[in-house]
Write a structure and sequence with these properties.
Layout (H helix, E strand, L loop, with lengths): L12 H27 L7 H8 L2 H29 L4 H26 L6
Helix pairs in contact: 1-3, 3-4
Length: 121
């Protein structure tokens, strides 16, 4: 195997490992979210109903984990596609990685801001 095929700027072991971990988190948290939102929550899914569900700290934590895992999984997948097909230099790969981390953190902060009224409720 050539050294450039396993170089860190072409993906890296930690990105690969966290991609798998976030996939498992997405499956588990999405199952919990859908179960409590659609199966156990019979009736109207209005604001008050969602607020009552989010009043439970565990379900808010599941939603935050789902948000963080989804953002990381999606942006890391996009990064890997870009590294495979477009980015050949280490400088461009680093620039795209930093940009995607900034976008991911911005999306995470915005999502948590939307859940903020129910955190510590």
């Amino acid at each position: 195997m050539k050294a450039e095929a396993v170089a860190a700027h072409r993906g890296g072991m930690w990105a690969w490992l966290f991609q798998r971990i976030t996939a498992i988190l997405l499956i588990v948290c999405l199952a919990i979210h859908l179960t409590f939102t659609h199966l156990l929550n019979i009736g109207d899914l209005g604001y008050d109903n969602v607020a009552n569900r989010l009043a439970h700290g565990g379900l808010t934590a599941v939603d935050i984990i789902l948000l963080a895992a989804g953002i990381y999984h999606a942006l890391n997948g996009l990064r890997m596609v870009l590294l495979d097909y477009w980015l050949t230099s280490r400088v461009r790969a680093l620039a795209v990685t930093i940009f995607l981390w900034a976008v991911g953190i911005a999306f995470l902060v915005y999502g948590i801001w939307g859940l903020w009224p129910w955190i510590g409720y």
